[in-house]
Amino acid sequence: MKYSALSLLRAGLGGHKDWPRAWRDPDPKPHYDVIIIGGGGHGLTTAFYLAAVHGVRKVAVLERSWIGGGNTGRNTTIVRSNYRLPQLHALMELSLKRWEGMSDEINYNVMFSQRGALFLGHSDSDMLQLAQKGDAMRADGIDADLMTRDQVARLIPLLDVSSTARYPVQGGLIQRRGGTARHDAVAWGYARAADRLGVDIIQNCEVTGMDITGGRITGVQTSRGAIGADRVGIAVAGNSGRVAALADLRLPIESHLLQAFVSEPVKPMIDTVIMTQSLHCYISQSDKGEIVLGGDPDAYPTYSQRGAPHIIEKAAAEALALVPALSRLRMLRSWAGTTDMSFDGSPFIDATPVEGLYFNGGWCYGGFKATPGSGWLFAHLLARGESHPVAAPFRLDRFETGHTMDEPGVGPMPQNR
User: What DSSP string describes 181-237?
Assistant: First the structure.
């Protein structure tokens, strides 16, 4: 639907009262070909690709609250594919390429900004690991540039690279195709696009039980009644353990909080995503001007979404040491997302022991950046009943078979292992 400048102005001044719905608000049907549990980015992209690519239109997305109210709206919005292992290269590069065409594909501006994603090196050991990661990335055709301290200083003038810095900077590794996106826009855009293909997006519909007969799932029980389905996919991020327990499944994950916070908005001062694996600190600036900060996960399993203050204090201290100019800003708000932490730092996209029930989760810190690739691969699995070659390594039984994928810095903290 196209709008004139005058109609947009009128709608804005009218307080959005007469704006049409971006997607329908349907009642649940008695039966669907596929039910996706979870109305976040991964669930919505899965539903969209089921309809758009595989022609499966009788699909429902069940969300217990509102679209994008979970981890999709509780992250630091970073998008990148700068991993070391080839399996994660294939997965995250698939996702990054879909990010690059996402706004055109779903006809919705997700504000994807390829401003670059820079990992800082603070020691000889850091620089060796970054050089090795960069070599592994380039070997798989992924962009990566190793930078000297002077190059980093020119890129980020406000960064403290002096000899007296609390965390000395020796250089860094940048992926220039990395960047950020608007998390809410991703959820809204895919919700609208899936709805237009006939997908039912049902909010305020909590799954409370699973109907399983003879080892096969036949539907789910919800707060809005029973709904039948031929296949069911779980994509609920930090609530995976609780939802899987409804089918008497125990997943190889723990749920931990990952906090973030933003400052008051200011004029542009940081135009690159700054990351440091040694400190586990993230710094970027949003399109609204807010400085976005993230840090370590809380060190204990919980579903509370209420982070511990000392985590915020640690992240703030590290950020101020790296960019002292941030000390003049006031914190605007903070939040916590509940993340599925697998014990090798890699996700799962696989069938469960219950026939017709599939699982997508265990994304640790990488859920948002993997959104379109995750949906593409999960839709393939749900539509065809077999894993896409890129998703094949991310099996639920890999700990039993010894085929783990240990990517340094992306799994649980050492004290949680």
Answer: --HHHHHHHHHHHHHHTT-EEE-S--EEEEEEETTEEEEEEETTEEEEEEEEEE--G
Range list of H helices, 14-156: 41-52, 86-100, 102-106, 124-139, 149-155
Beta-carbon neighbour count of residue 111 at 10 Å?
Answer: 17
Flag whether 9 is in a domain. Answer: no
Phi, psi at 313, each rounded to 5°: -60, -40
Top pLDDT among 1 and 357 is at 357
Q: How far apart are CA 165 and CA 324, in angstroms?
A: 10
Q: Which tokens in the block code for residue 272?
A: 């690159």
Residue 417 has pLDDT above 50, yes or no: no
Q: Has residue 193 been placed in a domain?
A: yes
Angle at CA of residue 320, ends 416 and 144, nearest 5°: 70
**Number of domains into which the chain is organized:** 2
Measured CA to CA, the distance from residue 219 to residue 221 in angstroms comes to: 7
Its domain, for residue 239, covers 24-77+183-253+344-416
Query: Region 383-403: what's the mean pLDDT?
Result: 96
C-alpha 46: how far from its chain's center?
A: 14
Cα–Cα nearest to 410, from 102, 169, 190, 87: 87
Residues 154 and 169 in one domain: yes
What is the mean predicted confidence (pLDDT) over 393-414? 80
Report whether 76 contacts 280 (CB < 8 A).
Answer: no
Strand partners, 121: 171
Residues 166 and 139 in one domain: yes
- Whether the full predicted model's pTM is greater than 0.85, yes or no, is yes
Q: What is the pLDDT of residues 327-346, one digit of tens each?
A: 999 999 998 989 999 999 99
pLDDT of residue 416: 41
101 lies in some domain:
no
| Residue 166, both tokens | 């609390």
Same domain membership, residue 293 and residue 228: no
Report how far residue 300's alpha carbon sits from residue 336's, in angstroms, rounded to the nearest whole number.
14
What is the pairing mode between strands 273-276 and 117-121? parallel
What CA–CA distance (Å, rounded) separates 74 from 337? 5
**171 and 270 share a domain?**
yes
> 380 Cβ partners below 8 Å, 6+ apart?
49, 54, 387, 388, 391
Whether residue 103 lies inside any domain: the answer is: no
State phi, psi for 254 to the nearest 5 degrees: -125, 155
For 193-222, the pLDDT digits (tens) are 999 999 999 999 999 999 999 999 999 999
Given a contact cutoff of 8 angstroms between Cβ atoms, the answer to whether 266 and 376 are in contact is: no
